[in-house]
């Protein structure tokens, strides 16, 4: 399936699928521009296990969601929020997200 280069299919579009089902569908249907869900990958045992498959799969990662809410207005949560944001940015870099 050839899609417009500005159209991205997010893992959240099929929220009840596993990450493996998502990637198998993308491969089967020729979806190349994708959005990743950090939360979905974390629930499946960690995002790190998917880096090689996604990087070698020829995907363009155009969005990266699933960090979850961070209550920045509450000073007692800021350090944790910064740490979570840094981990998420590190994951986005590992996947080559645009």
Descriptive overview:
This protein is of the alpha/beta class and 98 residues long. It contains 4 helices and 3 strands. The protein has a 3-stranded parallel beta sheet with strand order 1-2-3. The model has no long low-confidence stretch (mean pLDDT 92).
Write the layout of secondary structure elements.
Blueprint: E1 9-10, H1 19-29, E2 33-37, H2 38-43, H3 51-56, E3 60-65, H4 75-94
Parallel strand pairs: 1-2, 2-3
Number of strands: 3
Q: What best-fitting shape do the alpha-carbon axes yield? A: elongated
Low-confidence stretches: none
Helix percent reads 40-55%
Strand content bin: 5-15%
Order of helices and strands: EHEHHEH
* Whole-number mean pLDDT: 92
Largest sheet, in brief, is:
3 strands, parallel
What radius of gyration results from the CA coordinates? 14 Å
Query: Structural class, from helix and strand content?
Result: alpha/beta
Instruction: Please report the distance between the alpha carbons of the first and last residues.
Output: 22 Å
Instruction: Identify the strand order in the major beta sheet.
Output: 1-2-3
Number of helices: 4
What structural keywords apply?
98 residues, alpha/beta, 3-stranded parallel β-sheet, 4 helices, 3 strands, 44% helix, elongated
């Amino acid at each position: 399936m050839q899609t417009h280069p500005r159209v991205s299919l997010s893992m959240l579009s099929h929220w009840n699928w596993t990450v493996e089902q998502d990637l198998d569908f993308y491969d089967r249907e020729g979806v190349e521009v994708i959005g990743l869900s950090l939360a979905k990958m974390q629930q499946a045992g960690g995002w790190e296990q998917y880096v090689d498959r996604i990087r070698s799969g020829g995907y363009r990662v155009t969005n990266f969601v699933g960090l979850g809410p961070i209550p920045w207005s509450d000073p007692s949560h800021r350090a944790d929020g910064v740490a979570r944001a840094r981990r998420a940015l590190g994951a986005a870099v590992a996947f080559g997200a645009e």
